[in-house]
Amino acid sequence: MPKASKTLDRVLVLEMVRVTEAAAIASAKLIGRGDEKAADAAAVQAMREALNELYMDGTVVIGEGERDEAPMLYIGEKVGSAIGKGPEIDIALDPLEGTTITAKAGPNALAVLAIAEKGCLLNAPDVYMDKIAIGPGYPKDLIDLDKSVADNVKALAKAKGVKPREIIACVLDRPRHEKLIAELRKLGCGIMLIPDGDVAGVIATTNPETNIDIYMGQGGAPEGVLAAAALRCVGGQFKGRLVFRNDDERARAAKWGVTDLDKQYDLKELAKGDCIFAATGVTDGSLLGGVKQVGGKLITHSVVMRASSGTVRWVKGERRID
User: Fold this and answer.
1) Which of 14, 108, 131, 132 could form a disulfide with 285 if both were Cys (CB 3.0 to 4.6 A apart)?
2) How many distinct helices (H) and strands (E) make up the chain?
3) What is the SS3 assignment for 269?
4) For 121, which DSSP code?
């Protein structure tokens, strides 16, 4: 268990919930309205305003993209009310993980945030990442991206004491995963296909109630860092490898200091030291309930975790609607 960071003061734990709550509430107004960009913009603006109220010298290392393509909360943006004098904090965020989900009123949309001391979160470019993740309680390095799908599933099944066909895998429902899905079907595995939201998919492996044993497939690298931060807090294993489709993406990786393009990242290489992870549900999902208006109140459901203590807090918020 990592040593507690004095930089990540305990006050910041609950402050992070307020930040994700603000983003979730703002985007929830656009659930089912069919406008992905408007929902994302609302979450971004609300999260940015909430971050700028905090006493810290924050730097966004995982954000909405690079400055030229993201007007707010871009990689490298400074946030906080004490820039140059407050505690230096690196921030990974996704104000609305599941923009399409929100636009279509589907499940598992989240507002997500992770923070750590400066230099402790991988400054990942906005490219794809091959990912594999399992929950806690298994032998070290049980999974590996250099192993076949069958070998990973069989190793997990053996460690769990079940047959491979009893393993349930979570996979993003994408054409690029046709081969992966076929290999899992051949093993007889159950597959939970999700339309979006792979941060929630990775975290689901840590919760026995979801029945998900393993997450496999290719998704966004920023979401990989966020998921790794969550697993640092609650336990589990995660492996990730950046995927580059062209020279432009390789150049972007070099810009952010990534030199080994074939490196397989472990959990602690993506999120080092003490870190805090927070998420608030936008729509109902396996991890959290969504934002709801009940009478004259807004109800929110959040989770906040800290790596140094292994603490997980489930927070139900109620606020009056003026």
Assistant:
1) 108
2) 9, 14
3) helix
4) B
